[in-house]
Amino acid sequence: MSQSRRVAIVTGAARGIGAGIALRLARDGLAVGVLDLEESAAAVTADAIAAEGGTAIAVGADVSDAGSAQAAVGRLAAELGAPTVLVNNAGITRDNLLFRMTETDWDSVMGVHLKGSFLMARAAQEHMVAAGWGRIVNLSSTSAVGKRGQGNYAAAKAGLQGFTKTLAFELGKFSITANAIAPGFVVTDMTRATAERIGVPWEQYVQERAAAIPVQRVGLPEDIANAVSFFVDDRSGFVSGQVLYVSGGPWG
Ligand code: NAP
Protein backbone atom coordinates (compact mmCIF):
# COMPACT_ATOMS: atom_id res chain seq x y z
CA MET A 1 0.00 0.00 0.00
CA SER A 2 1.35 3.44 -0.83
CA GLN A 3 2.23 5.52 2.23
CA SER A 4 0.66 8.58 0.56
CA ARG A 5 -2.82 7.07 0.66
CA ARG A 6 -2.76 6.30 4.36
CA VAL A 7 -5.05 8.10 6.76
CA ALA A 8 -4.02 8.98 10.30
CA ILE A 9 -6.09 10.20 13.22
CA VAL A 10 -4.31 12.33 15.81
CA THR A 11 -6.32 13.14 18.93
CA GLY A 12 -5.81 16.35 20.89
CA ALA A 13 -4.17 17.80 17.79
CA ALA A 14 -5.37 21.40 18.04
CA ARG A 15 -2.16 22.39 19.78
CA GLY A 16 0.97 21.25 21.55
CA ILE A 17 2.42 17.81 20.88
CA GLY A 18 -0.65 16.65 18.95
CA ALA A 19 -0.39 19.55 16.49
CA GLY A 20 3.31 18.75 16.01
CA ILE A 21 2.49 15.09 15.34
CA ALA A 22 -0.30 15.95 12.87
CA LEU A 23 2.00 18.29 10.92
CA ARG A 24 4.79 15.72 10.83
CA LEU A 25 2.56 12.88 9.62
CA ALA A 26 1.16 15.16 6.92
CA ARG A 27 4.74 15.97 5.85
CA ASP A 28 5.36 12.20 5.76
CA GLY A 29 2.58 11.98 3.16
CA LEU A 30 -0.39 10.84 5.24
CA ALA A 31 -3.84 12.41 5.16
CA VAL A 32 -4.62 13.50 8.71
CA GLY A 33 -7.81 13.61 10.74
CA VAL A 34 -7.12 16.38 13.25
CA LEU A 35 -9.33 15.61 16.23
CA ASP A 36 -9.87 17.84 19.23
CA LEU A 37 -12.69 18.86 21.56
CA GLU A 38 -13.56 21.92 19.46
CA GLU A 39 -13.64 21.58 15.68
CA SER A 40 -12.72 25.27 15.31
CA ALA A 41 -9.54 24.72 17.35
CA ALA A 42 -8.66 21.59 15.37
CA ALA A 43 -9.18 23.59 12.16
CA VAL A 44 -6.13 25.74 13.00
CA THR A 45 -3.87 22.67 12.67
CA ALA A 46 -5.78 21.33 9.65
CA ASP A 47 -5.40 24.73 7.94
CA ALA A 48 -1.65 24.76 8.69
CA ILE A 49 -1.36 21.34 7.04
CA ALA A 50 -3.38 22.47 4.02
CA ALA A 51 -1.19 25.60 3.74
CA GLU A 52 1.81 23.29 3.31
CA GLY A 53 0.01 21.34 0.58
CA GLY A 54 -1.05 18.45 2.84
CA THR A 55 -4.46 16.89 3.33
CA ALA A 56 -6.33 17.23 6.62
CA ILE A 57 -9.81 17.40 8.07
CA ALA A 58 -10.71 18.91 11.44
CA VAL A 59 -13.14 17.00 13.64
CA GLY A 60 -14.61 18.04 16.97
CA ALA A 61 -15.01 15.10 19.35
CA ASP A 62 -14.60 14.10 22.97
CA VAL A 63 -12.47 10.95 23.06
CA SER A 64 -13.79 10.02 26.51
CA ASP A 65 -17.32 9.64 25.12
CA ALA A 66 -18.02 6.37 23.26
CA GLY A 67 -20.60 7.84 20.87
CA SER A 68 -18.44 10.86 20.08
CA ALA A 69 -15.32 8.76 19.47
CA GLN A 70 -17.18 6.30 17.24
CA ALA A 71 -18.86 9.09 15.27
CA ALA A 72 -15.55 10.90 14.72
CA VAL A 73 -13.85 7.77 13.38
CA GLY A 74 -16.88 7.09 11.15
CA ARG A 75 -16.86 10.64 9.77
CA LEU A 76 -13.14 10.57 9.06
CA ALA A 77 -13.41 7.18 7.37
CA ALA A 78 -16.20 8.50 5.14
CA GLU A 79 -14.55 11.84 4.28
CA LEU A 80 -10.84 10.98 4.23
CA GLY A 81 -10.64 7.19 3.84
CA ALA A 82 -10.20 4.29 6.24
CA PRO A 83 -7.96 5.35 9.12
CA THR A 84 -5.11 2.88 9.60
CA VAL A 85 -2.96 5.06 11.86
CA LEU A 86 -4.15 6.21 15.28
CA VAL A 87 -2.20 8.45 17.64
CA ASN A 88 -3.84 8.69 21.05
CA ASN A 89 -2.44 12.00 22.23
CA ALA A 90 -5.39 13.86 23.81
CA GLY A 91 -4.69 14.58 27.43
CA ILE A 92 -5.44 16.66 30.48
CA THR A 93 -3.91 17.12 33.92
CA ARG A 94 -5.77 17.57 37.18
CA ASP A 95 -2.77 17.49 39.52
CA ASN A 96 -3.22 17.32 43.28
CA LEU A 97 -1.76 15.57 46.29
CA LEU A 98 -3.75 12.49 47.25
CA PHE A 99 -5.56 14.05 50.21
CA ARG A 100 -6.78 16.91 48.03
CA MET A 101 -7.56 14.90 44.90
CA THR A 102 -11.26 14.73 44.13
CA GLU A 103 -13.10 11.89 42.43
CA THR A 104 -13.70 14.26 39.54
CA ASP A 105 -9.93 14.90 39.23
CA TRP A 106 -9.40 11.14 39.12
CA ASP A 107 -12.27 10.29 36.76
CA SER A 108 -11.56 13.09 34.26
CA VAL A 109 -7.91 12.09 33.83
CA MET A 110 -8.77 8.39 33.53
CA GLY A 111 -11.58 9.26 31.14
CA VAL A 112 -9.47 11.17 28.62
CA HIS A 113 -6.18 9.23 28.73
CA LEU A 114 -7.18 5.64 29.43
CA LYS A 115 -10.82 5.31 28.41
CA GLY A 116 -10.31 7.71 25.51
CA SER A 117 -7.43 5.66 24.11
CA PHE A 118 -9.47 2.47 24.52
CA LEU A 119 -12.53 3.95 22.79
CA MET A 120 -10.52 5.38 19.89
CA ALA A 121 -8.52 2.17 19.42
CA ARG A 122 -11.71 0.09 19.50
CA ALA A 123 -13.37 2.33 16.92
CA ALA A 124 -10.33 2.50 14.60
CA GLN A 125 -9.20 -1.14 14.74
CA GLU A 126 -11.91 -2.42 12.41
CA HIS A 127 -10.47 -0.27 9.61
CA MET A 128 -6.94 -1.50 10.33
CA VAL A 129 -8.02 -5.15 10.49
CA ALA A 130 -9.89 -4.75 7.18
CA ALA A 131 -6.77 -3.20 5.60
CA GLY A 132 -4.47 -5.86 7.08
CA TRP A 133 -2.16 -3.07 8.25
CA GLY A 134 -2.18 -0.55 11.07
CA ARG A 135 -0.23 1.58 13.50
CA ILE A 136 -1.36 2.64 16.98
CA VAL A 137 0.80 5.02 19.01
CA ASN A 138 -0.22 5.95 22.55
CA LEU A 139 1.20 8.89 24.47
CA SER A 140 2.44 7.78 27.89
CA SER A 141 4.78 9.92 30.02
CA THR A 142 7.85 9.74 32.24
CA SER A 143 5.27 10.35 35.01
CA ALA A 144 4.24 6.69 34.51
CA VAL A 145 6.93 5.71 37.01
CA GLY A 146 5.22 7.85 39.64
CA LYS A 147 5.24 11.56 40.34
CA ARG A 148 4.29 13.63 43.36
CA GLY A 149 0.93 15.31 42.85
CA GLN A 150 0.04 13.19 39.83
CA GLY A 151 -1.56 10.04 41.27
CA ASN A 152 -4.29 10.12 38.63
CA TYR A 153 -2.03 11.05 35.69
CA ALA A 154 0.77 8.61 36.64
CA ALA A 155 -1.74 5.75 36.99
CA ALA A 156 -3.29 6.58 33.61
CA LYS A 157 0.08 6.86 31.86
CA ALA A 158 1.31 3.58 33.41
CA GLY A 159 -2.02 1.98 32.44
CA LEU A 160 -1.49 3.08 28.85
CA GLN A 161 1.75 1.11 28.74
CA GLY A 162 -0.11 -2.10 29.69
CA PHE A 163 -2.86 -1.29 27.23
CA THR A 164 -0.30 -0.73 24.45
CA LYS A 165 1.41 -4.09 25.05
CA THR A 166 -1.96 -5.83 25.08
CA LEU A 167 -2.90 -4.25 21.74
CA ALA A 168 0.44 -5.45 20.37
CA PHE A 169 -0.41 -9.03 21.41
CA GLU A 170 -3.99 -8.94 20.11
CA LEU A 171 -3.54 -7.07 16.84
CA GLY A 172 -0.12 -8.25 15.67
CA LYS A 173 -1.60 -10.99 13.51
CA PHE A 174 -3.26 -8.29 11.38
CA SER A 175 0.10 -6.53 10.84
CA ILE A 176 -1.00 -3.84 13.26
CA THR A 177 1.67 -2.56 15.63
CA ALA A 178 1.04 -0.74 18.90
CA ASN A 179 3.72 1.29 20.66
CA ALA A 180 3.89 3.95 23.33
CA ILE A 181 5.96 7.09 23.59
CA ALA A 182 6.77 8.43 27.04
CA PRO A 183 7.82 12.07 26.71
CA GLY A 184 9.72 13.92 29.37
CA PHE A 185 9.33 17.68 29.71
CA VAL A 186 7.96 19.18 26.49
CA VAL A 187 7.19 22.87 25.97
CA THR A 188 3.40 23.12 25.52
CA ASP A 189 0.41 24.81 27.14
CA MET A 190 0.22 21.83 29.51
CA THR A 191 3.68 22.48 30.98
CA ARG A 192 3.07 26.26 30.97
CA ALA A 193 -0.04 25.62 33.08
CA THR A 194 2.03 23.55 35.54
CA ALA A 195 4.56 26.39 35.95
CA GLU A 196 1.71 28.81 36.54
CA ARG A 197 0.03 26.51 39.06
CA ILE A 198 3.18 26.12 41.17
CA GLY A 199 3.98 29.84 40.85
CA VAL A 200 7.36 29.59 39.08
CA PRO A 201 8.04 32.05 36.22
CA TRP A 202 8.03 30.18 32.90
CA GLU A 203 11.62 31.07 31.84
CA GLN A 204 12.98 30.01 35.23
CA TYR A 205 10.94 26.80 35.14
CA VAL A 206 12.28 25.87 31.70
CA GLN A 207 15.88 26.64 32.72
CA GLU A 208 15.61 24.53 35.87
CA ARG A 209 14.05 21.63 34.01
CA ALA A 210 16.64 21.80 31.22
CA ALA A 211 19.49 21.73 33.75
CA ALA A 212 18.15 18.44 35.16
CA ILE A 213 17.93 16.74 31.73
CA PRO A 214 21.04 14.90 30.47
CA VAL A 215 20.99 16.62 27.05
CA GLN A 216 20.55 19.96 28.86
CA ARG A 217 17.50 21.13 26.98
CA VAL A 218 13.76 20.72 27.20
CA GLY A 219 11.73 18.84 24.61
CA LEU A 220 9.74 20.29 21.73
CA PRO A 221 6.63 18.82 20.07
CA GLU A 222 8.85 18.03 17.05
CA ASP A 223 10.94 15.67 19.20
CA ILE A 224 7.86 13.58 19.98
CA ALA A 225 6.54 13.83 16.41
CA ASN A 226 9.82 12.39 15.14
CA ALA A 227 9.38 9.29 17.31
CA VAL A 228 5.77 8.91 16.16
CA SER A 229 6.94 9.12 12.56
CA PHE A 230 9.36 6.24 13.21
CA PHE A 231 6.67 3.99 14.71
CA VAL A 232 4.22 4.78 11.89
CA ASP A 233 6.77 4.13 9.12
CA ASP A 234 6.16 1.08 6.95
CA ARG A 235 9.67 -0.14 7.80
CA SER A 236 8.84 -0.28 11.53
CA GLY A 237 6.50 -3.27 11.21
CA PHE A 238 8.71 -5.46 13.43
CA VAL A 239 8.63 -2.96 16.31
CA SER A 240 5.60 -3.52 18.52
CA GLY A 241 4.62 -3.34 22.18
CA GLN A 242 7.49 -0.97 22.99
CA VAL A 243 7.66 2.06 25.22
CA LEU A 244 10.10 4.67 23.95
CA TYR A 245 11.16 7.30 26.46
CA VAL A 246 11.73 10.55 24.57
CA SER A 247 13.05 12.59 27.43
CA GLY A 248 16.61 13.68 26.72
CA GLY A 249 17.92 10.92 28.94
CA PRO A 250 17.49 7.30 29.88
CA TRP A 251 15.10 7.51 32.76
CA GLY A 252 11.48 6.56 32.69
P1 NAP B 1 -1.95 20.21 25.61
O1 NAP B 1 -1.10 21.31 25.03
O2 NAP B 1 -2.72 20.50 26.84
O3 NAP B 1 -2.89 19.66 24.44
C1 NAP B 1 -3.78 18.61 24.70
C2 NAP B 1 -4.91 18.66 23.69
O4 NAP B 1 -5.82 17.58 23.98
C3 NAP B 1 -5.71 19.97 23.77
O5 NAP B 1 -5.90 20.51 22.49
C4 NAP B 1 -7.02 19.52 24.40
O6 NAP B 1 -8.15 20.27 24.02
C5 NAP B 1 -7.14 18.10 23.88
N1 NAP B 1 -8.10 17.32 24.65
C6 NAP B 1 -8.26 17.31 26.00
N2 NAP B 1 -9.28 16.51 26.34
C7 NAP B 1 -9.79 16.00 25.19
C8 NAP B 1 -10.86 15.12 24.89
N3 NAP B 1 -11.61 14.59 25.87
N4 NAP B 1 -11.10 14.81 23.59
C9 NAP B 1 -10.35 15.34 22.61
N5 NAP B 1 -9.32 16.18 22.83
C10 NAP B 1 -9.04 16.52 24.11
O7 NAP B 1 -1.04 18.93 25.97
P2 NAP B 1 0.38 18.45 25.42
O8 NAP B 1 1.40 18.92 26.38
O9 NAP B 1 0.52 18.73 23.99
O10 NAP B 1 0.26 16.87 25.68
C11 NAP B 1 -0.13 15.95 24.67
C12 NAP B 1 -0.01 14.54 25.21
O11 NAP B 1 1.35 14.30 25.62
C13 NAP B 1 -0.87 14.28 26.44
O12 NAP B 1 -1.34 12.96 26.43
C14 NAP B 1 0.10 14.46 27.57
O13 NAP B 1 -0.31 13.78 28.74
C15 NAP B 1 1.36 13.88 26.97
N6 NAP B 1 2.60 14.35 27.60
C16 NAP B 1 2.94 15.67 27.60
C17 NAP B 1 4.13 16.06 28.20
C18 NAP B 1 4.58 17.50 28.23
O14 NAP B 1 5.63 17.78 28.84
N7 NAP B 1 3.89 18.43 27.60
C19 NAP B 1 4.96 15.11 28.82
C20 NAP B 1 4.57 13.78 28.80
C21 NAP B 1 3.40 13.39 28.19
P3 NAP B 1 -8.59 21.60 24.83
O15 NAP B 1 -7.55 22.60 24.49
O16 NAP B 1 -9.94 21.95 24.28
O17 NAP B 1 -8.59 21.22 26.27
Automatic annotation (TrEMBL):
Gene3D superfamilies: NAD(P)-binding Rossmann-like Domain. It holds the Pfam family adh_short_C2. It comes from the Bacteria. InterPro entries: KR_dom, NAD(P)-bd_dom_sf, Sc_DH/Rdtase_CS, SDR, SDR_fam. Residues 6-184 form the Ketoreductase domain. SMART domains: PKS_KR (SM00822). Belongs to the short-chain dehydrogenases/reductases (SDR) family. This is 3-oxoacyl-ACP reductase FabG. It comes from Pseudonocardia ailaonensis.
